[in-house]
Design brief:
The protein is mainly β. Strands 5-6-8-10-12-14-15 form a seven-stranded mixed β-sheet, covered by helices on one side. The chain is rod-shaped, with a radius of gyration of 46 Å.
Length: 410
Amino acid sequence: MEGERTASAPVSDCHPILNGSDVVWCASSGNMVNFYTIDAQTSAFGKKICRVAGDNITWELSGTTLSFTDEGPLDVDNTVRYRYPVSTCRKSYSNPYYVWDSAKYSAESVVIGEGITEISNRSFYYYSNLTEATIPSSVGRIGAEAFEVCENLATVTIYTRAAEIGENAFWSGWHYSKYFPTTFRLYKRSAIEQYAKDTSIPYEYINEDISGATIAVDAGEFVYDGQEKKPGITVTLDGTKLVPDDDYRIASYQNNVNAGTATVTIEGYQGFSGTASQTFTIQKASLANATIAPVSDRAYLGRQIRPKPKVTVGGRTLVEGTDYTLSYGRNLDEGHGTVMIAGTGNYQGSRPVSFVISKAITNWVMYRLYNPNSGEHFYTASEKERDSVVAAGWKYEGKAWYALEGGSPA
């Protein structure tokens, strides 16, 4: 390399190094780090600007919006060294705040990106034109005097539910006239809400979607009894227990009468929006608790006997085919007959019922005859009448049944 290569740049923070044909050095001033290069062959001068606010945080001023991105603590340096042209504007070197002035006094909105965990002390002290700020859920600490004397700061939207907040983080005025011009937008039942209450900062709620809430149905077994089931519930959202009729309302119970799967649905209220649902089970009632009317004795008929016992549960008469089904034993011979009652629909379990089949008392045999002239059947216990109509052309069809002298209805 022959000759001298020069460029206008601030004093380096480091020893220049040679990278290929480039001589590289850097200079910093608070929230700016600039890297410079001079090509040893061509004298071409290069400059790369890095806007920093902490070890990992970068910033950008777009119009009147000052944005911070990346992960980790945010640390705005308001007491920077005076090194032009690293400073963001040309100002007098007598005041350290001038180096950051072009960003500071242009910013009307500060947006702190998700992933930033901390806002250092006095980060936005006396940003006189700032009207709004957004703090993400990732922030766990807001330093002392972080937004102090931002007298035009009208709204701070805070998405974090819990953060350590330093002394005088948001107040304006002076020692004898401390006040809070700011209105917080925050989540209901958050630690930030309590902070606002404690410091008399006015606030309004950010509507929070309740669809991710956990609904726990009160313990207990729900058994069909023909009445609606409306169990109590406990609702939590991100670990916070919500209050009924203040944070949410029960919108509906569905399918909550018959046995099966029922559903309770809630809707957000006063700071919460959206809906959430939870199912619960209504068990079938057991026939073990049913009252079954005794089946009276039956007389032998020569055919299967099929009595229909009356079944009640809790004073309600059950309906065959809807609440239970009946099945029978042989029930033909003298002795004992059986009926099996099996639950269906809203009932479960089975109950056997037995009854007595007694010997029939057969004083008369009833004969069955057919009149071909009228198409009608005729029954008689008289052998003489039977023989007479058969002689007249009627058809004898045999014995129909035995007429009983006594006993219970079949």
